[in-house]
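Renewal narrative, Specific Aim 1. Our central claim is that a sequence can be written position by position from structural information alone. The example that follows is taken directly from our test logs and has not been curated for this report. It begins with the structure tokens describing the chain, in the order in which they were read.
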């Protein structure tokens, strides 16, 4: 007897899939373009009954905030004040049978409730209270919601109190909290309103009954700052369970006990956190290992170098494939943020030595290192810097941002690339405001070519070298390199290097070869050629020669 292997989709389902793709495209477009055709789905819904149901399902599946509910309210029963807050003038309609039925029709479709702190309108806390208490529907208002965003601002504490009761339901699995992170009383901020105060704690306590079912939990600060342990957040984190797949707390420092508890969750795959030196020594001696059995992606904001090394020393992540380290280190020097001043350089070897010392992440394939915004630190890459991580044989991507100085020679690079045959990306990105100089170190174009022979899959490269001497025609053509930023590499004959690149790097296109980027863009601001300093003329000469390389690659 024949049995179909898959059922045929109904017309409603096909239309819903099509409308969902249309909605996704709109979401990816710029705000200006979204405004130009955001009414597409409503217009389709009004066309005919066949289009109405699938279009409405898509429109209400993911709502940008509670302000969309005004489309269900009688226009004479609510008002929007000057502060862009929505108030009810009358509330009797909330208990009307016809309104309840209409509300239920749309509310059951809602799966994701976002919150935009820059949105045009938002609900006043009194309106939130009326919604939570007077709309007589059985159970939560948004029974099927799985993802919600909660506001928690020190300037709007009453909103933080009433908002959760409106949006939380039994199927909520994904919770994101937006907060301004106020930690001290100040102008217009009472002590009770600060993060960690009683009002915030009351809001966080509302989440406790749901926390065991969370698969994604995040707290994001609107202002960039790092905050020490917040008891309310620590307490909530103790309620998380093995259901958790992702947690983001990059601007909060968890207490040692809570961090250890999270590390034991068997389902956690993605973890974003900050680490800092504790105010008082941890009572655990020696510190217990942080075993993340399922963790694949780890993002660590390092607030002190000692804290970063201590965390990596305790880390055990047998499934970890991607590591992102972001340094927010204290500025020890009292100086201005002048781009002409020498940048404080830091060598990453101590961090990499700890990372590789215990073989705690045998599957690691991607390492990315960056410096926090407004932090003046930059990195120096010396011959021994990357040697500790040669043990990670599966590395496919290495990216070091704000890399102000690279001191690798031909032998160093050959040793590194010989250890990483699967490498696809090798990026050393210089600081944008760093006053770059022409490369004068020991890595040559020939040495780079020899090293690339060991990495046949490398497709993206950002690394300067001495290209004044054209390498001999040896080796096999590299079939994968598509993008190369040569930085401030010196060159003698652009046409000769261009012909050599065409022979040995046939997939490298002219548009994908970058050179002297920041300096070249600054040439547009020079109106008088007399204004170019003598020591900068050599860079202009090098740009002209690399232009010849581009001409050859274009054919």
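The sequence written for that structure reads:
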């Amino acid at each position: 007897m024949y049995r179909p292997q898959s059922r045929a989709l109904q017309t409603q389902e096909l239309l819903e899939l099509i409308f969902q793709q249309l909605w996704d495209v709109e979401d990816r477009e710029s705000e200006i373009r979204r405004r130009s055709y955001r009414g597409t789905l409503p217009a389709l819904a009004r066309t005919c009954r066949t289009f109405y149901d699938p279009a409405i399902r898509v429109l209400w599946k993911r709502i940008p905030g509670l302000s969309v509910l005004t489309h269900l309210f009688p226009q004479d029963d609510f008002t929007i004040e000057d502060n862009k807050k929505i108030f009810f003038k009358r509330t009797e309609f909330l208990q009307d049978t016809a309104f309840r039925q209409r509300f239920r029709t749309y509310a059951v479709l809602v799966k994701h409730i976002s919150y935009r702190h820059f949105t045009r309108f938002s609900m006043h806390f009194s309106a939130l209270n009326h919604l939570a208490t007077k709309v007589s529907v059985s159970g939560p208002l948004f029974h099927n919601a799985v993802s919600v965003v909660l506001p928690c601002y020190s300037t709007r504490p009453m909103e933080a109190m009433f908002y959760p009761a409106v949006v939380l339901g039994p199927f909520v699995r994904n919770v994101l909290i937006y907060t301004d992170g106020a930690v001290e009383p100040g102008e217009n901020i009472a002590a009770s309103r600060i993060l960690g105060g009683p009002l915030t704690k009351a809001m966080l306590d509302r989440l406790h009954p749901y926390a065991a079912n969370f698969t994604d939990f995040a707290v994001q600060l609107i202002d960039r700052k790092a905050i020490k342990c917040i008891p309310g957040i620590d307490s909530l984190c103790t309620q998380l369970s093995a259901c958790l797949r992702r947690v983001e707390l990059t601007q909060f420092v968890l207490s040692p006990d809570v961090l250890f508890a999270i590390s034991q969750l068997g389902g956690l795959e993605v973890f974003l956190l900050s680490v800092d030196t504790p105010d008082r020594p941890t009572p655990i001696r020696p510190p217990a290992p942080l075993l993340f059995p399922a963790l694949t992606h780890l993002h660590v904001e390092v607030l002190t170098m000692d804290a970063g090394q201590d965390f990596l020393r305790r880390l055990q992540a047998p499934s970890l494939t991607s590591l992102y380290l972001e340094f927010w280190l204290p500025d020890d020097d009292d100086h201005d943020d002048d781009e002409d001043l020498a940048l404080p350089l830091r060598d990453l070897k101590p961090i990499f030595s700890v990372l590789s010392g215990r073989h705690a992440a045998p599957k690691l394939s991607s390492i990315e290192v960056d410096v926090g915004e407004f932090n003046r630190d930059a990195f120096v890459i010396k011959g021994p810097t990357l040697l500790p991580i040669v043990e990670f044989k599966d590395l496919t991507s290495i990216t070091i941002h704000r890399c102000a100085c690279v001191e690798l020679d031909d032998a160093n690079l050959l040793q590194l690339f010989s250890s990483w045959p699967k490498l696809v990306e090798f990026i050393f990105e210089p600081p944008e405001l760093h006053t770059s100089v022409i490369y004068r170190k020991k890595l040559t174009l020939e040495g780079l070519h020899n090293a690339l022979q060991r990495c046949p899959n490398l497709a993206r490269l950002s690394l300067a070298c001495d290209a004044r001497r054209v390498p001999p025609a040896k080796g096999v053509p590299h079939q994968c390199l598509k993008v190369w930023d040569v930085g401030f590499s010196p060159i003698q004959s652009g046409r000769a290097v261009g012909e050599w690149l065409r022979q040995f790097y046939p997939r490298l296109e002219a548009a994908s070869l970058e050179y002297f980027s920041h300096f070249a863009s600054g040439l547009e601001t020079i109106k008088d050629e007399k204004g170019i300093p003598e020591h900068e003329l050599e860079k202009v000469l090098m740009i002209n020669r690399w232009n010849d390389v581009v001409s050859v690659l274009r054919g």
